[in-house]
Amino acid sequence: MRTRRLGGAAVAVAVAASLAACGGGDEGGPGQLGGGSGQKPEAGGGEELAALPPEEMLQRAMDAVVNAGSGRVTYTVSGMATTEVDYARDSDGTCVGEVTNSEVGTVEFVARGEEVWAKPDERMWQDAGAGAGGAFHDSYVHGPADHPSLSGVANVCGDWEELVSVEEQESQTEETGARVEWLRGEDTAVLGQRAHTIRWEYRDGEDRIDATYLVAAEGEPYLLRTTMESTSELFGDTTGEFALSDFGEPVDATAPPADQTVEIEELGDVNPFASLG
């Protein structure tokens, strides 16, 4: 799908994540952010980091995020609909969070290994033709992560070990003949932490993306914030704000109790998650 590749690094970090949350994209499945460099981050911030070209600094930041082992992601993307996501995940695939889409509804979820528990709101039950959830009202639906009805939820968190490779995405961009420019901006602060500013511009005919990345200037060079504005033939005008935090913190993904859970097989043909793709 052309739009999956449109934004290179910007799309992978912000837009692709939002499309995953609302079921968009058809390359690699929702939440797959494209091949990572697989490299361990080098030393943290300081003069060495500040001297890097912007694209190398961004790759260093992404590698640092992957190697942290866990973290929290929050983002809001607005376009044809507004998607809000808040989740914490670790490198073992444990993930807990919530997704709200203005055109779909809200899902709370817990993912552990190959299992997922997902709690749709009343709107999603109603859209599935199941009233307000009927006997399953206010229940988590439990099943395998690869179940067709649950895979859209399971893949919201993506795979940080396959976080975008700037080099690979730029190679893909070159194939389209698009114009790309990397720029450095003035240093700023994120919650009191000094951060380097990277700007990324993408132009391909009527399609454009302008993204700003903020990378920690001290300590580990984590990617802390991304903001994005884009216009594309398929999705129109889109804006996004993306934040990462709580690096290395444990993720508490306790499974819901049995009396609050219904097995996916019990739903029969009812699929409250159909709108997630």
Percentage of residues in helical conformation: 10-25%
Shape: globular
Q: What does the average pLDDT come to?
A: 79
Distance between the termini: 15 Å
In short:
22% of the residues lie in helices and 36% in strands. The chain is α+β, with helices and mostly antiparallel strands.
Commentary on this structure:
With 277 residues, this protein is an alpha+beta fold. It has one domain: outer membrane lipoprotein receptor (LolB), chain A (Clam). The protein contains seven helices and twelve strands. Strands 7-8-9-10-11-1-2-3-4-5-6-12 form a twelve-stranded mixed β-sheet. Strand 8 and strand 9 form a beta hairpin. The longest helix is centred in the first third of the chain and has 15 residues. The radius of gyration is 19 Å and the shape is globular. It starts with a helix and ends in a 14-residue tail after the last strand.
Key terms for this structure?
277 residues, alpha+beta, outer membrane lipoprotein receptor (LolB), chain A, 12-stranded mixed sheet, globular
SSE layout and pairing:
Elements: H1 2-6, H2 8-22, H3 47-50, H4 54-68, E1 70-78, E2 82-90, E3 95-101, E4 105-112, E5 115-120, H5 122-127, E6 140-144, H6 151-154, H7 166-176, E7 179-190, E8 193-204, E9 207-216, E10 223-232, E11 236-245, E12 261-263
Parallel strand pairs: 6-12
Antiparallel strand pairs: 1-2, 1-11, 2-3, 3-4, 4-5, 5-6, 7-8, 8-9, 9-10, 10-11
